[in-house]
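Hi there,

I know you've been waiting on this one. I reran it after we fixed the sequence typo, so this is the corrected version. Both the input and the resulting structure follow.
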Amino acid sequence: MKNNKGLAKGIYIAIIVLILIPWNRLGLPVISAPIALLCGLIFAFIFPNPCPKFNKKTSKYLLQVAVVCLGFNMNLQESLKSGSEGMLFTVVSVIGVMALGVLLGYYMHINRKTAYLISSGTAICGGSAIAAVGPVVKADENEMAVSLGVIFILNSIALFVFPPLGHLFEMSQQQFGTWAAIAIHDTSSVVGAGEVYGEEALQVATLIKLTRALWIIPMAFVTMFIFRDKSSRISIPWFIFLFVLAMVVNTYVALPAWFVDSMVWIAKRGMVVTLFLIGASLSIDSIKNVGVKPLMQAVLLWIVIGVSSLFVVLETIE
């Protein structure tokens, strides 16, 4: 047992090191976001996670650091201009998905809190929204696990499916970035898919997704009213404001090239490591615990938001 745990930990660390090695300087391709996620999933199906607490905390904070670092490579004015076309649909889709998700949960006889958490994760920003809203509704460990499990499963699928679909529909960088930000749940998979598609898609997707993530704040207040609990604590995603600050600094301050290049490297490699950590946390047991009805609710919501946003993006954005 100890030998297996030691072997798992060794492989776990080795994969992270391999992701961080700048293979491109040696004339070899770097490990991409989809490959890192796939490695994490394969690892999770073979070994029990040797560092579950480290995995959970690191994936959360590393994602936030990576997003903030990415801001140092983005111009505020250009980003706002390129992302503005997706903002209106963002507002409509957040409200629409929440309403549809709650109705589906009611008619499918899914636990009220689980259905609400899945709807929040689909409408706003996946696991981050669930983590923020969960304490407000006083969700128990099982309700949180089921909701997060569903979202993580669909996030994993999205990272592999969305870029090929973007090429199939001959989407521009801006179209794909907008679509990914609206239709993919978690920020990590949105950024991963955007990076695979192209630099402009990455910037557009990140900006729109983080704007969407700010809906966590009003959503938490509305949730307090619905579940009648004013004593609950609201978790505000402060790192989004740091991301905006990084964009402002990069726009109005002449930063040295080496600094910007370093921030971009940290952002991209940090995101790839995050996806490996997320994949490594998604075990077979966590998938089994999800259940059919919650998964069906999440898939139906995902199809609705994915197809409707694809239609709107193709029709309104050049």
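Quick highlight: The chain has a mean pLDDT of 82.

Best,
R. S.
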